[in-house]
Amino acid sequence: MSAEFIFFTSIGLSFIAWSMLISRYVWPRLRLMPRTGALQPLLLLHAFRFVGLAFLVPGVVSPDLPAAFARAAAYGDIVTATLALLSLLTLSRGFGVPFVWIFNVWGTADLLTAFYQANRSGLLAGQLGATYFIPTVLVPLLLITHAVVFRLLLQRSSMAAALERPLAA
Q: Does residue 42 carry a pLDDT above 80?
């Protein structure tokens, strides 16, 4: 089996496993919580996105790791982690939800851009070195939780709008 086949199989299986875990154990609890409470653990998870800075550490990754990918992934992750923390700090205030939207759009775009940049730069799985676990284990979880955040934001917005509408006579 080729390293690329193993790499992409790992990513695919990670998406399946995380989807099952989130849908069976996490979502049933989050959907019953107030939006602020449901968003907090998801934002805390993304506060650990600083781990992407490892793409810049010599010896952790191969010297052949494409620099364009490494820089974009690392700095995109640190910005996302910062936005997650800002969202957590402001969530209980009136302006917290817009921060969550900014965090979620940025964070999702960052992950999708990293996939694109990896493909465009010809990244090989072995060049990731010790950071191999980031795209194979963490990125699927992060993308799934971004989808959950979008669902919470949109669901609660539509529920609030429905409550504001007068009932038909």
A: yes
Rounded Cα gap, residues 89 and 73, in angstroms: 24
Domain assignment present for 13: yes
Angle between helices 96-120 and 139-164 (to 10 degrees): 150
**119 in any annotated domain:** yes
Secondary structure class of 165 (helix, strand, coil): coil
Share of the chain above pLDDT 90, in %: 88
- pTM for this prediction: 0.90
| Number of separate domains in the chain | 1
Cα distances from 108 to residues 25, 94, 100, 141, 157, in angstroms, run: 23, 23, 12, 12, 20
Q: In sequence order, which residues have a C-beta less than 8 Å from that of residue 120 and are 6 or more positions away?
A: none
Residue with the bigger pLDDT between 92 and 80: it is 80
Q: In sequence order, which residues have a C-beta less than 8 Å from that of residue 23 and are 6 or more positions away? A: none
The whole-number average pLDDT for the span 122-138 is 96
Extract the tokens encoding 94: 């009136």
